[in-house]
UniProtKB/TrEMBL annotation:
PANTHER family: PRE-MRNA-PROCESSING PROTEIN PRP40 (PTHR11864), PRP40 PRE-MRNA PROCESSING FACTOR 40 HOMOLOG A (YEAST) (PTHR11864:SF0). InterPro entries: FF_domain_sf (IPR036517), Prp40-like (IPR039726). It comes from the Eukaryota. One of its GO terms (molecular function) is RNA binding. Residues 149-295 are annotated as: Disordered. One of its GO terms (cellular component) is U1 snRNP. Residues 281-295 have a biased composition (Acidic residues). This is Pre-mRNA-processing protein 40A.
Length: 295
């Protein structure tokens, strides 16, 4: 660290101390209030007329001014810290008074704290009012922040509600799609089952038609056979009387006996019974009813 020997020399110079005393006496005599924002020229202009001869050198003037500014700033710092502490105390007092709200005004609330030590220590109503207004601004910001948070919370809840509704709607659609797929599967199975039933019914119907067709064919075949047999019997019956007409004539010449008549009836009955038996067999094989339909 370099030592400023010139600065140290001033404290040992008798002339410097003499000039410093003259400047201080001029300030007191003229009641000059030196402020921290002054420049060296401002300081010279303020006290130059109060200083008699001999004149003070510029160097000593500057050193006295610098020393004075340093002390003023230290004092201002102390005063500022003190005021800040007093302001904080008064601010805390205002914060503790629940009757003071964001809409409160100085005149209505002054009676709530004017007898307190925190307010009296400030010693300046203007400063006290300024602190009060700062506190009211804080309350206003607090109310606005609370409203903003409430609005944000409202928007958040509304958004969550909408998202929840969208999620429910999505789930509902998914369930509906799933049910539709299940119904589609059931319809496919039902259609497949119905198709199998229809196909089976068609097969049965085809078999039935084939069976009925076969039965009708057999019926016609039996009917034709019966007709041929009947015609043949009739022809034989017709031929027999012609062939044996002489025999019958001869037999008629002979005397009539009950035995011969009984034998004839027995032969006719046997022939009729044979025809009926054939008809019954047709009914059983072809299942032909009385109305001619195949059973």
């Amino acid at each position: 660290m370099l030592v400023d020997w010139f600065s140290l020399k001033k404290f040992f110079s008798p002339q410097y101390h003499e000039d410093k005393s003259r400047i201080k006496d001029a300030i007191k005599l003229e009641k000059i209030i030196v402020i921290s924002t002054w420049t060296l020229e401002d300081f010279k202009d303020a006290i130059l007329d109060a200083i008699s001869s001999p004149p003070i050198s510029d160097i000593n003037f500057k050193h006295v001014f610098d020393e004075l500014m340093e002390r003023i700033k230290e004092k201002e710092d102390k005063e500022s810290k003190k005021r800040q502490r007093l302001a904080d105390d008064f601010y805390d007092l205002l914060y503790s008074i629940k009757e003071i709200e964001a809409s409160s005004i100085w005149e209505d609330c002054k009676q709530l704290f004017e007898d307190s030590q925190e307010y009296r220590t400030i010693g300046d109503e203007k400063i006290g009012k300024e602190i009060f207004e700062n506190y009211i601004t804080f309350l206003e910001e607090k109310v606005k922040d609370k409203e903003r948070k409430r609005d944000e919370e409202k928007v958040k809840k509304e958004k969550e509600r909408e998202e929840k509704e969208k999620k429910k709607e999505k789930e509902r659609k998914e369930k509906e799609k799933e049910r539709e797929r299940e119904r589609g599967k059931e319809r496919s199975k039902k259609d497949e089952s119905e198709g199998e039933k229809v196909e089976l019914a068609e097969v049965k119907e085809d078999k039935k038609r084939e069976k009925d067709k076969d039965r009708r064919h057999r019926k016609r075949h039996h009917s034709a056979t019966d007709d041929i047999s009947s015609d043949k019997d009739e022809k034989d019956d017709y031929k027999k009387p012609r062939k044996h007409s002489s025999d019958r004539k001869k037999s008629r010449r002979q005397a009539y006996t009950p035995e011969s008549d009984s034998d004839g009836k027995h032969k006719r009955h046997k022939r009729d019974h044979t025809r009926r038996s054939g008809a019954y067999e047709e009914l059983e094989d072809g299942e032909l009813g009385e109305d001619g339909e195949i059973r």
